[in-house]
Amino acid sequence: MSRRIALRGAPPDPLLQVLADLGIAITETAHLIMVSDGSPETVRSLVEDDLLPVAVARDRAAAVEALAAGALAVLVPPFEPAEVQSTLAPLLRVERQWARQADAREARFRQALRDLQTTKDLLGRLIDATPNPVMAADPQGGVLVFNRAAERALGYDSAWVCAHLHVTDIYADPHDSRRVLSNIRNSEQGQVQEMEVRLRARSGELVPVTLSAAEVYGADGLSIATVGVFQDRRTELALRARLEETTDQLLATQKRAAESDTVRSAAHELNQPLTAAMGLLELLGLAQGLEQAHRDRIDKVYAQLERTASLVRNMALSPHRARAGDTGQLLDFSRATDE
Length: 339
Fold this sequence. Notes:
5-stranded parallel β-sheet
């Protein structure tokens, strides 16, 4: 059976003599602690440390205060050996067992801390391995998590962000952080999906992202963090702009092709009556007894029709030039016939 006790302060000499006579050793480390001044504050601190306090009180009133603070027993002068023996004996018997239990609890606590650290390290590696940027903040806005993908997307160093930045510093509009949290709390699922916001990169560039976020609660039901996963939309928007530009170019090409087909079709349709008219004029010019003035007019009209036929052929070969105004001046057949 353990017969040892530790001291807090200096107990009265008569009590020390009684302890020596009873064979109780004074040691620096023991779970049974004698509080020499009976201080309730010291007693409470020992109880919180999972120790066994025994108070030394100057009178019965002080003894009551020590018991109320959690003392397992109280010694009051005069310190009679029999009374001290009867008070300490039960505690001395359980001190070693209490120490073993305390050591076992300490070992379990340390193992739990190691397990927690292992779990924390594993979660940290998993978050860092996530291809999408992840960011988490505490209820006060301090950044708790900023993974490697977030570093690559925004250019910040994770440790520096967690040490120096508030979550509102990362949003392009500081009000967006409150808007995100408000949308989370107002949603039925307690989360938001693909919310469009802009974040501020270290370079100052405003980065468009889609954000999915949720609030995390502790065992007591209180919020402990807000976690968000965001997708950088710069590549997507650049591709969309290029696609829209390509689509516009394709539509313009199709429009030009349709116009070209229309011009060629019109040229083909014009060519037939022009050819017929020119043939008739040639036959008319061969008629006998035709006055020279009329023959001259026929020649002028034929020349105008020939010029028109040349323009129509150019339209069929190069409709864009024809549309652009390279067909020359409009022909005036009434003037040709009057001359």
